[in-house]
Amino acid sequence: MERPILKPVGTPVEELDTPALVLDLEVLKQNIDKVHSFFQGQTAKLRPHVESHRCPAIAHQQLAAGGTVGGISVTTVGEAEVFAQAGISDIAIANEVVTSQKIDRLCALAHQSKITVAADNTDNVKALSEAAQAAGVTLSVVVDIHTGLERCGVEPGQPAVDLARTVARSRGLHFAGLMAYEGAIIAATPDELTAQSKKWIQPVLDTRQMVESAGLDVEVVSVGGTHNYEIAATMSGVTEVPAGSYALMDSRYSATRPGLRPAAKVMATVTSLPEPGRAILDTGKKATGDDLGFPTLDDLPNVNVFSLSAEHGNLTWEEGNDPNLSVGEKVWFTPLEIGATVNVYDYIQAVRNGRLESVLDISARGRYR
Question: How far is 230 from 340, CA to CA, in rounded Å?
Answer without folding.
Answer: 25
